Amino acid sequence: MASRSAASSVLSLLLLAAFAASARAATFTITNNCGSTVWPAATPVGGGTQLDPGQSWTVNVPAGTQSGRVWGRTGCSFNGGSGSCQTGDCGGALSCTLSGQPPMTLAEFTIGGSQDFYDISVIDGYNLPMLFSCSTGVTLNCGGSSCPDAYLFPADNTKTHACSGNSNYQVTFCP
């Protein structure tokens, strides 16, 4: 009996290891091409940082992450880890754990197993032009508050795109 239990445990560990190997993180590269500083934020992973013009920030998002968001904050002033932003402020924190306050252009995503989903939303307002792309999908471009690639209102449910699971992503402000 003990050997059957041990074999079952080993099999369970091997299956878990195989699943973990196939469920890898997606890499998000967030770039500021604006002429001024942008403070991108990402939830539920990533937090936030300051990006001067031309700088990039890389965030690894684990498989299984749902309802993820990336947005750019503008007009920020921070002293250490706290301060405020004119757009996209998340409770005065540099590293966001809450979603930002409108207006903000949102890159939204769900990182799944065999398929990921992503979109741009301006339902919460528009503050920065944005490109959002998946390495195995289409590039979404939002250059204004009524951009055709973005969700414009809550019932606008035709703007979500799919790509291969755990792909790499690019979010570019001011493309």
TrEMBL record:
Asked if the record carries the keyword Mitochondrion, the reply is no
Checking InterPro entries in the record gives:
Osmotin/thaumatin-like_sf, Thaumatin, Thaumatin_CS
Keywords in UniProt for this one? Disulfide bond, Signal
Name which cysteines form disulfide bonds: C76-C85, C90-C96
Q: Does the keyword Zinc-finger apply?
A: no
Give the range the annotation lists for the signal sequence. Answer: 1-25
Q: Which PANTHER family match?
A: OS03G0233200 PROTEIN (PTHR31048)
Q: Could you tell me what this protein is called?
A: Thaumatin-like protein
- Source organism of this protein record: Miscanthus lutarioriparius
